[in-house]
Structures are given as structure tokens and as C-alpha cells.
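Help needed: design a sequence for this.
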């Protein structure tokens, strides 16, 4: 192999990036988001800066494999477009995908990817072509390392991306499964926070938290956030949760000022089904509030899922504990009367659902410091009103339902079965829509995951002689 045949890294990089330098004013430096180092391919290194970097036999690839840079017996079996490496807009917070387009195989760390299938690349991954043992490239990810402090078993299976937000008990990050490329939300709950609260919440220890989390993993309902995985470490519990791209209900209400009666009903219908499912399983949520209701899409008519249940009794994001620090809002009066101690019935969730419905329909809170008296006092007396102008356009039957749900005496407060049978929810159009959203979700969950091994993607390799 002569010196000229070795691809000149510098020249290759310049030509791949020329599209950027043609911009007339203020040429933007392309972001080099990854690098390929040649192994059996005679290439020293190649900077990756275009969004989609293709490799194959054809001349129009970003890297053309020819007899000059790969051994002849391998080259003859290379496809025109063998594989592609891409990073959306070169954005370093996004994962790097490798997609196999070949007939004779692209392999990642010795395992075939499969025609048209994608995987997420990780730093130091080895890409082979034609045969698992024909190592062609080593990939280097030049993006920031978001995985520090996160256990290897998570980083090896998931690409750790941007922070979605943080709550009282830890950080939530967007992660991507490297094999299926599916997005998830990874919630890290720090155990020191759990144990701090444990002293307040009757010494529930972290093994109990894990047990509770394992129960949550078994739950399966279209309106309940699915927990896909849990990793228990000495410092933290990591939960891999279904990712909801539509944001939370609080943000939705704030952005719309308030929700129409129809959309409020659609959302409430789904929340009630989630709560019925949990109650039938003997689980009380205890921390229902719009922040804990996540939406599937940004559309008005969308599926929602209730999140953050079960663990609320262990961690200090529990409204019960917040209540004791001075911000109740969604908490039932019996919890306040017991100063957050003692056990409560499922009726605490009915109260919170009533507050959530009030908030959806009016964009205001039934109980608030702004009303001049301490919130806890308002709640204990069930002191709220429909005086805000927003209520003028809301039906009387909706208001009656709220009044029933916000009954101070929990023995007289209805249960979830009653709510689901309520006249306000007997709206065929909304019920049909809600059922369809849930049904679609159930069909999606039952379908095999993309890129999963139970799809028959392993075509037998074809030996093609082109030379
Ligand atoms: N499964 C998810 N999919 C998408 N975003 C999520 C998911 N879970 C949480 N988030 C987002 O992450 C952020 C933090 O969530 P987290 O549940 O930790 O806190 P919170 O419920 O907002 O507050 P707190 O923990 O104090 O109750 C929120 O903005 C939420 O919208």
C-alpha cells in the first residue's frame, strides 16, 4: 500500500466540510462530532462533521472503499453504500447512529447490525465489515461525556443525553437505548435524600424503596408511566422510564392559560383510569398533581400518563412533606389534620384529582396563599369557590363533580368507580377518543420494538462476486 493510497485525513475532512465553507459571510466552523480510526482499512483517521457520513464502494460516499484502502477479498463484497454514521445536525447532545445498508454485513463489536437496522455508537466501538473479525474502524465520540458517575451497566446500554429537568429527589435525563434506539427518561433518585426523608417518614429504608420500585416495574397500563428498568446502586436508584415528549400537564395548563372543558374531560378521563388501575392493585398515588401527569405529544388530544407514584411515600418530593414545609395545594385535608403522619385511604387521590380538575378547567388553584388565609386552613375547611370568570363557561355538572371530590370528610368523598360512572364523564365522543388513545398505546406496547432481535432481520449473507 503506497503512501498516496492512504487517505489523507486533512484533505478528506476538508472536502466533507466544503459545504460549510461556501457560505458567503461568516463561515461557520463545522463541528467535528466524531472520528473514525482505520484498522484493516488503510485510513489513519477521519473527522466526522457532516450530518450523515456514508461509507461504501460507490464514488458518491463520504468515504469510498476501494482496492487501495481495503484488501481485495473484502472490497469485492462491500455494498455500494455499506453503512452510514450520523448525528442529527451534528448536535453533540444527540446520539451517533450507525445504520447498516449492506447485503454482506456491518458488525458492531463483533455482532451483526442487520440490513437497514440502526444502533447507537459508543466511544471505542469497533466496526467490522463483511465478517465479524474483519475490523475496519474504531469510532471515537467527540461529544461531551454525560455519563460520569452513572453506572457502567446503564452507560453500556444507554446513550446519556440532555437533562430533562430535576425534581426534589434528583435529576431526570433523556437517554437512548443503544440497541433499539428508543428514547427513555432516566430518573436518578439519590439515596441520601431517601434516607433523610426516611427519618421523617418512619424509617423506610432503601431496600424497601427498591421493593416498591420493583412493584412499579410490573405495572402495565396505557395511562401509567412504564418503568422499563431499575438499577440499584449504593448511592442512587436509577429508573429507566417511558419518555413522554409532550411535557407535563402543569406546563400545558400554564401555556394555554386553561384547558377547554372537552380537553379537561379527555385528560381527566385518562387520569381516572390510571388511578382506578392503581387503586385496584392496592396502590395509592399520594402525590397526584399536574407536574406528575406527563403528555405523549404537544397535540391537544393526546394520551397522558400518571407518573411518580409509589415512591412518593419514600422521597421528599411528596406533597405530604412539602405540606409540612408550607406548600400543600393538592393534598387532602385528612393528611393535614394528621400532620403528614399515619396511613390514609385511597380517597386522598380523589381529593387531588379534584384539585387537578379544578386547575385544568379554570387555570387557577382552589386553594392558594393568594386568597388571604393559610392554604392549610382553606383545605381543612374545604373552602373554595367558583368565582373566577373562567368558571362562567364551565358546565354545572363539572362543578358538581368537583364539589363532590373536594368533600372534606373522606368517608363521604366518592371513590374512583363512582367518578368513572359520573354523568360528566358520560360523553360518548370524549370516551371514544380516550379509549382510542389508550387502545393505540396498548397496540404500540404489544408490538415488537424496532431493531429488536425477534424481528427476522438476519438475512443470510450473500457472497457476491463483482470482481
Ligand atoms: N418520563 C418522563 N418523560 C419526559 N419527561 C419527564 C419524565 N419524567 C420526568 N420528566 C421531566 O423531568 C422533570 C423533573 O421530573 P421529576 O419527576 O424529577 O420532578 P417533578 O415531578 O417535576 O418535581 P418533584 O420531584 O419535586 O415532584 C420534569 O420537568 C418532568 O417534566
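Sure. Designed sequence:
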Amino acid at each position: 500500500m503506497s503512501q498516496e493510497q492512504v487517505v489523507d485525513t486533512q484533505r478528506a475532512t476538508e472536502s466533507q466540510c466544503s459545504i460549510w465553507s461556501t457560505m458567503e459571510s461568516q463561515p461557520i466552523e463545522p463541528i467535528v462530532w466524531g472520528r473514525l480510526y482505520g484498522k484493516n482499512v488503510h485510513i489513519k483517521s477521519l473527522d466526522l462533521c457532516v450530518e450523515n457520513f456514508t461509507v461504501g464502494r460507490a464514488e458518491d460516499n463520504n468515504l469510498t472503499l476501494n482496492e487501495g484502502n481495503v484488501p481485495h477479498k473484502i472490497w469485492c463484497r462491500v455494498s455500494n453504500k455499506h453503512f452510514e454514521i450520523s448525528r442529527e445536525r451534528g448536535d453533540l447532545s444527540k446520539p451517533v447512529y450507525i445504520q447498516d445498508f449492506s447485503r454482506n454485513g456491518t458488525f458492531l463489536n463483533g455482532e451483526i447490525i442487520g440490513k437497514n437496522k440502526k444502533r447507537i455508537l459508543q466511544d471505542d466501538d469497533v466496526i467490522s465489515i463483511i465478517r465479524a473479525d474483519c475490523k475496519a474502524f474504531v469510532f471515537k465520540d467527540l461529544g461531551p461525556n454525560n455519563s460520569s458517575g452513572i453506572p457502567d451497566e446503564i452507560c453500556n446500554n444507554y446513550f446519556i443525553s440532555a437533562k430533562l429537568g430535576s425534581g426534589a429527589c434528583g435529576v431526570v435525563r433523556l437517554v437512548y437505548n443503544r440497541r433499539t434506539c428508543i428514547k427513555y427518561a432516566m430518573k436518578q433518585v439519590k439515596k441520601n435524600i431517601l434516607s433523610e426523608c426516611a427519618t421523617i417518614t418512619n424509617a423506610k429504608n432503601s431496600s424497601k424503596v427498591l421493593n416498591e420500585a420493583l412493584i412499579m416495574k410490573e405495572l402495565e397500563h396505557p395511562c401509567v408511566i412504564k418503568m422499563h428498568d431499575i438499577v440499584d446502586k449504593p448511592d442512587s436508584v436509577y429508573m429507566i422510564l417511558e419518555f413522554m415528549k409532550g411535557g407535563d400537564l402543569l406546563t400545558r395548563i400554564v401555556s394555554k392559560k386553561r384547558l377547554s372543558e372537552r380537553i379537561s374531560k379527555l385528560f381527566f378521563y385518562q387520569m381516572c383510569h390510571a388511578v382506578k388501575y392503581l387503586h385496584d392493585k392496592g396502590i395509592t398515588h399520594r402525590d397526584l398533581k399536574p407536574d406528575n401527569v406527563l403528555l405523549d405529544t404537544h397535540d391537544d388530544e393526546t394520551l397522558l400518563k400518571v407518573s411518580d407514584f409509589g415512591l412518593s411515600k419514600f422521597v421528599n418530593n411528596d406533597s405530604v412533606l412539602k405540606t409540612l414545609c408550607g406548600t400543600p395545594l393538592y393534598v387532602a385535608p385528612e393528611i393535614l389534620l394528621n400532620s403528614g403522619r399515619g396511613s390514609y385511604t385511597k380517597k386522598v387521590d380523589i381529593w387531588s384529582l379534584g384539585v387537578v380538575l379544578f386547575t385544568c378547567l379554570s387555570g387557577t388553584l382552589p386553594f392558594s396563599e393568594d386568597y388571604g388565609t393559610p392554604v392549610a386552613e382553606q383545605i381543612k375547611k374545604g373552602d373554595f369557590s367558583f368565582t373566577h370568570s373562567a368558571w362562567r363557561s364551565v358546565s354545572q355538572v363539572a362543578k358538581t363533580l368537583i364539589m363532590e371530590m373536594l368533600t372534606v370528610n373522606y368517608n363521604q368523598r366518592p371513590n374512583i368507580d363512582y367518578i368513572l360512572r359520573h354523568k360528566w364523564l358520560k360523553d360518548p365522543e370524549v370516551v371514544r377518543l380516550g379509549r382510542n388513545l389508550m387502545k393505540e398505546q396498548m397496540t404500540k406496547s404489544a408490538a415488537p420494538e424496532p431493531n429488536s432481535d425477534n424481528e427476522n432481520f438476519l438475512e443470510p449473507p450473500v457472497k457476491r462476486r463483482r470482481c
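Residues 261-280 form the longest helix (20 residues).
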